User: What shape does this take?
Amino acid sequence: MLKFDIRSRYFGSIFQGSNQLISELFVPNLEWSCVQKRFDVGREILKWIAIITMTIDHVGAILYPEHTVLRVIGRFAFPLFCYLIVLGMETTRSVRNYFTRLLLFALISQVPFYLALGLGPFESLNIFFTLSFGVLFIYFLKKKSLLSFLPIFASFLNFDYSIYGVLLIGLMYILREDTKLGVISIVLLNLLFLPIWPTQTFSLFSLPIILLYNDGPLKMYRESKGKTAYPFWKKYFFYVYYPLHLTILYCVRVGF
Assistant: This one.
């Protein structure tokens, strides 16, 4: 009876803690709330570099697969988006809304994603699925919860970039906390995947750009004249751009 009571208390405390974390996820997080009064110029530069290199990558994958250089240039994009997710977690008013927004656009983007790349409907899940579960990974990682393993397991559901993608988002969070440890971890992750994904090692060239923001002169701000530094159209531009540019590339490919 004593052993049973101890086990009941132990597992009960785990489930109780998990329920508390999940409930905190779905309410506004005051600790991370931040009303954007200043426009982050450096962050915007990172975002545009990511968008441009992603577009070049997709042009190569969809229209000119024989030109490997386009795919190599495209390796810059994903690490930048992972880092931007971490920055978004630091400034979002609600982790719930951030996760929901990413997941919603994951669903919206799936059709143009698989059509543009010539895949089956569920052969691969687009990058928004990876980024949305990366948000959960960071959230649970920061709370030091065992639930942080759930997004890692979920990444095996044909996520774009799979487990590599979710882990890289977590390592970008570590980089924000400890630059040296983060850089070493990211390099080791890419070396681990080198035998099966050699071109992805070119993504390491995006690290100097990230470090220019993380510890260097790229972190620049401009005072906002309005109520918020990020108007509605600017906030949602990338979300809309992703499925839109895939749709355009698909139309070009099929000759519309």
Notes: The chain is about 70% helix and 0% strand. The chain has one domain: 40-254.
